[in-house]
Fold this protein.
Amino acid sequence: MLTIYKTSEQGLEQLESLANGAWIKAVDLTPEEIQKLVGWGIDADIINYSLDLDEIPRMERDENYTFILILIPHRQPDSDTPYITIPLGILIKGNMIVTICRYEKEMFKVLADGKYRLEDVLTENQQAIQMTNINTEILSSMMGAFASIISNNLNGVLRVLAAITIIINVPAVVVAFYNMNVQLSGQNHLFAFLTVLGISLSLIAIAAFIFYKRDWF
């Protein structure tokens, strides 16, 4: 069923045809009514999303429209599950608003009775969209900041590990000279082992001092 309302000085008035600044209430649509909505410029996918009981809540924005899909409670008195949730599609296109739902709901009757002005609903909806966008930007900034912190911490850990690796490899290079199967000067000296050990420790101390000065530790 398609019902068209427009705000006047007396409240919401029901119209017979589409008018600028109107609210189109679409409930329990027939195939002919769906085609009528499509003819008014409503995307067929948006209509199908709003009528599909398996759809999930979301918001879509385009240059020409804003589409919000929410889940609202629906009572089933004759079922083992007394309450379920059903989708409600809210389309804002220019200064026209379209609500699409599979079942008639009490909230529509409240709006149609004129207890709430359509302009107020649109204003609050736009404010909610703006707040959502602001919060989304804040969350994106926070995620970027956390990613930068994690990256900096990881770089620090990798720098320390690289410095330790280099320091450990220094004595290995020195000792490798004395593992060759060739005659080396001083290899038969009484203090050859201590000399190699001293050179290794000295190089380790020099490397550690350099890395310390470069704030690698």
